[in-house]
Amino acid sequence: MMVSPMQKMSLRVRGLLADRSGLAAVEFAIILPVMVVMVFGVVEISSAISADRKATLAARTLSDLTSQMKSVADADLKNFGQTAKAIMTPYPASPLISSITQVYIDASGVAKVQWSKGLTIDPSGKVDITMAPHNKDDIVPLPSTLVAAKGTYVIWSKVSYKYTPAVGYVVAKTIDPFDSAAYTRPRTELCVTYPTGGYATCQGS
Question: Which phi and psi (to 5°) does residue 153 adopt?
Fold first, then answer.
């Protein structure tokens, strides 16, 4: 029986369509990149959430440690910065930028800065005191529940942490810094004095 070239081609195409021996490999090759992206995505999201929580804890710790002091000096603030650095482990500490500010709420309910200092951490892990983020007597916004208590002081700490994903350069550019703030009342005195910063007595004492 003679078979025309067209019939031969048709038989070959049918045979190819009926062949399922490489189907699983093809499906796996298609799905694998998607699975890899999903796995790395879940890992990076989990890591970012963890870094955000650590930044929040660092802010709370800076405020809490300061509020337990009667008076602070530059060495104390640097030690508090070292604690914040330890909290960020295992993430790099150098992207952490923080500040500690004491605010006085006057009889009119206006929140004014009494003293303020910034903290940075260099790549080697050294904590440095930087320019104050607020000047003395700057009026700053505080939560209404804190402003309601007139004639009192508040220790206000702020933290900003720039998280860089382990993979994904494009993703890294789209992530905003993690910002957190914490507020604590002085625990042992009316206020926390800072003699080396020019604040040796409490305004309301």
Answer: -115, 155
